[in-house]
Amino acid sequence: MSKEPREGAVEKRKIEPLDAEVSLLGFGLMRLPVKGEDKSRIDYPAAERMVDMAYRAGVNYYDTAYPYHEGKSEVFVGDVFSKYKRESFYLASKMPTWEVVNSEAGVKRIFDEQLAKCGVSYFDFYLAHSFDPEHLERFRRFNMYDFLRKKKEEGLIRRLGFSFHSNPELLAEVVENYEWDFAQIQLNYIDWDLLNAKRFYEYLTSRKLPVIVMEPVRGGALASLNDRAGKILKKAAPDSSLASWAIRFAASLPNVMTVLSGMSSAEQVEDNLKTMTAFKPLSEGERALLGEAAAAYNAAGTVPCTGCRYCMDCPAGVDIPAVFRQYNYYHLSGKKDDFINTYRYLREREKAHNCTSCGRCVRLCPQGIAVPEFMKEITAFAAG
What we know:
With 384 residues, the protein is of the alpha/beta class. The chain folds into 2 domains: 12-298, TIM Barrel (Alpha-Beta Barrel), CATH 3.20.20.100; 320-383, no CATH class. Helices cover 43% and strands 14% of the residues. The strands form 2 sheets. Strands 3-4-5-6-7-8-9-10 form an 8-stranded parallel barrel, surrounded by 6 helices. Strand 4 (61-63), helix 2 and strand 5 form a beta-alpha-beta unit. Helix 6 (168-177) packs parallel to helix 8. The protein is globular. The termini are far apart.
């Protein structure tokens, strides 16, 4: 039986060129709660409660992709979203542009598989996933654009876009050589300058392409911060979470259609709903405070890993995101004992010293992190 959404209080934006009214908060289905350490074992009761909570509050944009939760995120969509009236929500998924696709037939196979897994007859938003130079070459070689345009003409894709992890020059090449409806970029108050997010956003705005924001809280890193950065924001707004500042930064930009949050708990859903209900854009004074907090955060020397796990699985067995998460926690807290006590609980094969510097992770990393160099640094730090 289909459920009708309750009258939602979450802010929405009418995107005239796309004939869409999209909730300013989007639900990213890539970090759902799981059972144990297995990312493919989604905790269905907990995750479904989170989705229900968001849906009832008016969140109508849900983002999945072929690799999320090791292929099980799209299955979760098919299992859970069937109870909702199809036209009451927007669903986005993505065509992988890396090695999982190795032929034109493979493009069709994956698209058909995604429709079946999600249990839908069309995607409201569909993206070419994660453009960088290598992925763009594969996108061209297997004529992915022609295939996706045909699916749009057939009505199986309503709006066609791309997600991006590269440099300004490649962004211009992608936008100028193909016709798109929207673009998805990593944008937050740290990467605004650090990873060219400001330049990307302004360019896309100049080309009249609505922007979807991913990683607004940088994989959760901006929900904790270090003491110095956190105190700056907590002094200004004691009752506001640190994550809410990051969400508001992205949502305050007028050409942003929706801000995706990869929520992992009901508490995160509640906090984001609170932020996006009767939404208040940042004031100039608040922007200045975020600049101070960003400077304090950057001074801590953390690795810019968002925990997306695109680098996994490592051929040598290293759990790259887990190693970085523990190393970053040390940099933010300054507590060496905490690093020692958590790092030792990684399985031996998952630790930094097993890195062989093969470079596979560097090619896959959306942030362009020099992973092998950091692994050498962390190995030395752990040994010391």
